[in-house]
Design goal:
single chain, about 0% strand, about 110 residues, mainly alpha, 2 helices
Length: about 110
């Protein structure tokens, strides 16, 4: 059994959606999972290094602000975000904002 490489189902505007095979769905899921794991790993590594590089007080505050925003957004705003952007759009923006969070550590260390 062979899993094909992840491919996107391209289609022309106005045409019927292309049928998806089980293999392409699985390949897309694996690719998304790997990308999410890589992104989340960067965030967790940043959290671990925050206290060491920024000091225990500032590192602790940054972790607290992250989880406070994360929890508040998940409880109060996430349904509206998914409704407006769709599941893929919400996931894309979440990953982009995670990248901004990780980049903020690089900026703070450079200043």
């Amino acid at each position: 059994w062979e899993v094909p490489m992840a491919t996107m189902d391209f289609q022309q505007a106005g045409s019927a959606p292309l049928p998806r095979t089980a293999g392409s769905v699985l390949a897309g899921f694996i690719m998304m999972s790997l990308c999410f794991a890589l992104n989340h790993g960067c965030v967790v590594a940043s959290l671990a290094l925050a206290s060491d590089q920024l000091g225990p007080s500032l590192g602790g505050y940054s972790s607290g602000v992250l989880y406070l925003c994360y929890t508040t957004t998940a409880l109060l705003v996430a349904p509206d975000i998914v409704r407006r952007l769709g599941a893929k759009g919400a996931l894309d923006w979440g990953l982009v904002l995670y990248c901004v969070y990780v980049a903020s550590y690089a900026v703070s260390l450079a200043v």
